[in-house]
Amino acid sequence: MSKYENGVVVFQDPKSNENIKVPETIPVLPIRNTVLFPFSMLPLTVGRESSIKIIEDISSSDNQYLGVIAQRDPSLDDPQEIDLFSVGTLGVISKQVRVKDNNLVVIVQGLRRFRIKEYVQTHPYFKARIEPLDDIVSVQNESRAEAMRRSIETLFQQIVTLSPGLSSDLVTIALNLQDISQLADFIASVLSSLSTLHKQEFLETLDVWKRVEKLHLELTREVEILELKGKIQSQVQDEVGKNQREFYLREQLKAIQKELGEGDDAIGEIEELKKSVEEAKLPEEVKAEALRELKRLAKMLQASAEYTVSKTYLDWLVSLPWNKLAESEINIQRARGILDRDHYGLEKIKERILEYLAVLKLRPEGKAPILCFVGPPGVGKTSLGKSIADALGRKFVRLSLGGIRDEAEIRGHRRTYIGSLPGQIIQGIRRAGERNPVFMLDEVDKIGTDFRGDPASALLEVLDPEQNHSFRDHYLDVPFDLSRVLFITTANILDTIPPALLDRMEVIEMHGYTEEEKLKIAEHYLIPRQAHENGVALGEHLQFSDDALRHLIRYYTREAGLRNLEREISRICRKRARQLVEGKKDLVKIEVDTLPDILVAPRFILEDEPRPPREEMFSLKKRVV
Fold first, then answer.
1. What is the third-level CATH fold of 3-132?
2. Is the pTM of this model over 0.90?
3. What span, in angstroms and rounded, lies between the C-alpha atoms of 437 and 153?
4. CA nearest 87: which of 17, 145, 21, 36?
5. What whole-number distance in Å separates Cα of residue 473 and Cα of residue 482?
6. Which of 66, 43, 73, 65 is nearest to 190 (CA)?
7. Between helices 196-204 and 208-260, what is the axis angle to 10°?
8. Which residues contact 518 (CB under 8 A, 6 or more apart)?
9. Domain 332-509 - what CATH class?
10. Disulfide-capable partner of 412 in 72, 99, 473, 551 (CB 3.0 to 4.6 Å)?
C-alpha cells in the first residue's frame, strides 16, 4: 500500500521489501508507440530537447525518479497535457548512453502505476503531482487461479515458439515470476501483437483478475492467428514446391519429346491455345474450365484420339463471342425506313418492333422478347426477320426446325460420343460472331418427336427469358448467356406447338394480304425484283397495267401469301427475256387480254361471275393442257 508523508509518497518495493520514498511532484517523460509496465525494463531513445533536459536534470539531482506516460497521438513532436494519457508508470533510470546526433539511449525500469493529479509545470518539460495506484486483488478460488496461470504460461510458450522474433529466454523469465500481477504485466509488455492503445488499457486495469482474464483472451486469439498464419505459410510452401516439381518434370518432358521429334508442334499448339484463352476474355467459370482442359491437353500425347477431342473443345470455347456484342446506334426513324422499304403494310408488326427498339435504346441490358410470327406461307415471315436484323444493325441467323427429331440438334451432343458437336443454337451464335444476333427459328410448328428426345422441350430453356441467361449446351457444359439474343420463331399454325413452348412466346399473327395490298406489293417489290433477276428493263422492255395485275391476282393466284403471284410475274419476265434474245426490242405492255396468251387460261373463277359456255370451257381446258 502507498501512503503520503510530508509531500513524499512511500511504498514498499516487492523485491527488497524496503520502503521507497518518491517526491509527490516528479518530471513526466512522454513516450511514443509503447507503454512502460511495472517491473519491466524499457530502452528508450530520447531526442526531444525537453526529454533530454529531463534526463540531464535527473542525473544531476538526488531525485532519480520520473513518470513515463504514453502519448495518445505518436505523430506529435510537441504534445500538450491533453495529448497524454492520465495513467503512467513510475520509473527510475538504470542506464544511459549518448549516441550520435546528440541523442540519448536510456534504460528505464518500471516500478509502480500512478495517475496524474495535476500538472504543475509545462516548460522546459512537464512536472506533475502524482497519485500512486495500487493493484486491486479480488478473492478467487485457488484452483481456478492456478489453472488460469498455467493456461497463460502455456499460451505464452506457444506464442514464443510460433514467433521467430521472440526470444525463448522470455519463457524462462515468465515461469520464474510468482506474482500473477507481475506475470500479466511482463507478458503484456513483451507481446508485440498488442497495440499501444491495448497496452494502455492493460496498464489502466487495476483489478488484477480482470487484467489476467483480458490477457488470457488476447493470448488465445494470438495463438489462433499464429497457427493459422503457420498453416497458410505451410500451404504456400507446399504449393511452391509442387509448382517447382511440375516445372522440372515439364522441362524433362519437353526434352524427351524433342528427342523423339514430336514435341515442337504440340508445345506450339499448347502455347497458342493458352494465348487464345487469355485473349478471349472468358467469364471466370468458363476460363477455369478452359485452363483445366488445357492442363489436361498438355499431358496428352499428340497422336492420341483424346488429344483431338480436347483441342476441338478448346477451339470452340475460345471462338465463341462470350463478351462481343453488336454495337450499333439505334435510330427509330432509320429503322422505320428500313421496315417500310422492305415490307408494305404490316403496321401492327412494325409498331411492335419499333417499341422493342425504343426500350432497347433506353435500357440496353434489358431482356429480349421472343416473337412468334404466325401466318400462312408466303406472307413474309422470314423476310421480316431479315429486315429486323438490318434495322437493329445485327447479324441474322436462321435455323429451320422442320422435321428435327433429335434433342441434340438443340442442346448438342456430350463429348463422350465420337464426332460430338455443340447444338445448332451455339453453332449459330458462333457463325454470327456476336452474342446478340437476330436468331430466327423457322417452322417451329413442324418439330417432330421420337426416341432420341423432344426438341420442343429442349427449346423451353432457349426461349425462356428467365432461364436462357445461363443456357448450358451438352457439349460445352458451361453456361452461355442467350438473354441478349432476339429470338424470332415462325409457324403456319399454333395447334401443333406445345402449350409450354407457346407460353414463352409473344404471338403476332400475320394474315393474308388483300387484293389492294398485293397490287401495291407487286408494283413496288415483286415486279422490280423479278425484272432485275431476269434481265428485263421496266419501262423500256416491259410494263404492267394495273388492270392486268388485278386480273393476275384475282384469277391466277388466289392465296394468302405472295409466292404464286411472284412466280407468275417471273414467268412473264422470262417469256419477255426470251423475246428480247430473239430480237423483239419493242416495249411490251401486259394487259388483261394478253395474259391468257402468256399464262394460258385463268385458274380461278369468282363465285358471283357466270360460268363460260361449255365450248369455251373446253377451249380453256385445251389451252391449259
1. 2.30.130
2. no
3. 71
4. 36
5. 11
6. 43
7. 160
8. 553, 562, 565
9. alpha beta
10. 473
